[in-house]
Design brief:
Layout (H helix, E strand, L loop, with lengths): L7 H22 L15 H7 L12 H24 L4 H7 L4 H7 L4
Helix pairs in contact: 1-3
Protein name: DUF6589 domain-containing protein
Keywords: Signal
InterPro entries: DUF6589 (IPR046496)
């Protein structure tokens, strides 16, 4: 039986590209590790990692999934914050229950002119 595994190499390359990209994002936005997490830069991944008690240890060779999770979780939180500011509310769930908006209108609100 002659098995061909040529399809594996592109998948491995994509995974390593993603890992390298996560390392780039993390090292760019990690911040200073010698600052106090309570008073440090709240926008840095070091601060977020400390406050959320995540397990990202080595910024130069981070674990793939914990790094991916902190990047995605931070993105979701920042998008939610943007919606709160745009809609002038502190609680999006209450806002949408009292002000039902069609999805098309929500997408229109999200466009930047």
């Amino acid at each position: 039986m002659n098995a061909r595994y040529g399809w594996v190499l592109p998948l491995i390359q994509l995974w390593h590209m993603g890992w390298a990209d996560l390392e780039r994002i993390l090292s760019t936005h990690w911040g200073r590790t010698n600052s106090n997490a309570e008073t440090g830069d709240m926008s840095s991944y070091y601060f977020i990692n400390t406050i959320l008690k995540r397990k990202i240890k080595d910024v130069k060779r981070p674990n793939y999934y914990p790094t991916q999770n902190i990047v995605f979780d931070t993105l979701r939180a920042k998008v939610i914050d943007c919606w709160k500011v745009m809609l002038g509310t502190e609680d999006l769930e209450v806002y949408f229950k009292t002000n039902p908006i069609p999805i098309e209108d929500i997408f229109e609100l999200g466009t930047v002119e």
